[in-house]
Amino acid sequence: xxxxxxxxxxxxxxxxxxxxxxxxxxxxxxxxxxxxxxxxxxxxxxxxxxxxxxxxxxxxxxxxxxxxxxxxxxxxxxxxxxxxxxxxxxxxxxxxxxxxxxxxxxxxxxxxxxxxxxxxxxxxxxxxxxxxxxxxxxxxxxxxxxxxxxxxxxxxxxxxxxxxxxxxxxxxxxxxxxxxxxxx
Length: 184
Known about the structure:
Elements: H1 11-18, H2 41-62, H3 66-91, E1 95-98, E2 103-109, E3 115-124, E4 129-136, E5 139-141, E6 146-149, E7 158-164, E8 167-173, E9 179-182
């Protein structure tokens, strides 16, 4: 028995009459459209808008503000000072930090009672970071002076004033050994 479509046309006989076995034959010519390749304008605009949003979000994370950089750099200096303090406390030997010439040098008192730089503990400050002053126990001192941490755990209050990309920052240390970076 020949199959009948929903419209009642007999496809098998029609296909035999035209020589085509395709299901397209039964469709009217107006319903047949050529295959279109490519994207519509709306699809392209949506993709461009999504890409723009992703780039805007990424730019915020890839290019930090001056305030974020200043906070990071002052925190790194605070960490260097904390590490020197910890070296003195747990190493049982006095440790000093020098902040001159755009460098942070951590030094230890050697057997000859001379300061020697600890390996791997000498770093250059990045461009845009400048140490402006050092105050030890309430007295401003020259940046060539060393900030000394003793192994007894008793600290001397200090303040390191700096500029990071033109923004003022300070690192404070108290007698209990707490070190923190903040805005003045």
